[in-house]
Description:
The protein folds into 2 domains: 4-254 and 404-414, no CATH class; 258-378, Conserved hypothetical protein from pyrococcus furiosus pfu- 392566-001, domain 2. It has 13 helices and 21 strands. The chain has helices at residues 17-20, 30-37, 45-48, 63-78, 111-115, 127-140, 155-167, 190-201, 212-227, 270-278, 326-335, 358-367, 382-390; strands at 4-5, 10-12, 82-84, 90-97, 100-110, 119-120, 142-143, 147-151, 172-175, 181-187, 206-210, 242-249, 255-256, 258-262, 282-286, 297-302, 305-310, 350-354, 373-376, 401-402, 413-414. Helix 4 (63-78) runs parallel beside helix 6 and helix 6 (127-140) packs across helix 9 (212-227). It is globular. The model has no long low-confidence stretch (mean pLDDT 94).
Amino acid sequence: MKLIQPFPGWRPKPELVEQISAPPYDVLNRQEAKELAKDNPNSFLHVSKAEIDLPDDVSPYDEQVYEAAKKQYKSLQKRGLLKQDPAPYLYFYRLIMDGREQLGLVAAASVPAYNENRIKKHEFTRPAKEDDRTKISEALGAHSGPVFLTYRHSKTVDKIAANCVATQTPVYDFTANDGIRHTIWVVSDKTTIDNLVDAFEALPGLYIADGHHRSAAASRVAAMREKQGKTQSKDAESSSNRFLSVIFPDNQMRILDYNRVVTDLNGLSEEEFLAEIAKQFTITQSPTPFKPSQPNSFGMYLKNKWYQLKLSADKIDKNDPVTCLDVSLLNQYLLDPILGIKDPRRDPRIDFVGGIRGLQGLEARVDSKEMTVAFSMYPTALSELMSVADANQVMPPKSTWFEPKLRDGLVIQEI
């Protein structure tokens, strides 16, 4: 089974693409999504976050949500707002943010390759979120939110991509209200498609950058379909043995910091807390908000003050790809021993703030009294992510925040 394949995508009518496509489901909370979609009945948020159309006391995991998502998705199809391409195609997808561009390939990735770790993981999934993505895919009969994949760049793919972009007219080219420009080219030429499939087949593998829950859900859907007799075997070239992906070369990727906020000081006074930190870190008050400019350095916001925390090199094991990560070091030397957070995946006392929200986003969470202390992080490097995945290990939760984000509803893969 090939690593990637073309597929006949469902896509918005060109004149409606800005109206229908939407930010991914997991970067907006319920109220933010409701506000963004309130004057736009065709927004894909009514599918991907269908809870916005139900009373606030209805859980986002309630069965009513999946029924509402299915109803809205089928409505977009029946009204002709989404149309399916006549044959299996590939698609190039370019994003431009702050003048910086990246060009990826939209393709149907192999579930068996994911199961066999040729599409490599670097995070554990959370059961509730994995269940949620499984149910939404089953309800829609489609994968609508793409998995963000990366690979060690290939000159062959680069050459094909450059030729397509230079010689073809895009089907979509618009700037969303967040300032990010999105451009899609349809790759319908069979020779070009075959060349791209072969070029990716020659790669040792792919890496999940963002979308562990979506890819895990796709694997579960494929297994359920096989059990139900809807596919003949795990190697069957069935759409349910595929998942929607956008694949970018590693030399175009951008990772931002993924910061932490904590509700309390674990029973310590401010003075006791600072004294405990000083046993492990060099701590210095900063006159301005502190954003680390190098690894092994952390910012901390507490009681309207910013601090710089520096960890000495002798505390870091450079031979282990996981324990040497800054997110691991913060867990090992501060969150666990001082704040008592043993499991950041499940502890409700910790939350995570994407770097796109800036240091002001951390200050706002603390100044509102919702949280007590915040930590700013140096971004994890893509090479570190790949090293962890190559070693078949996993990172601590919320280690990476990729920007720009892919839009939902631009190209949808039916299963």
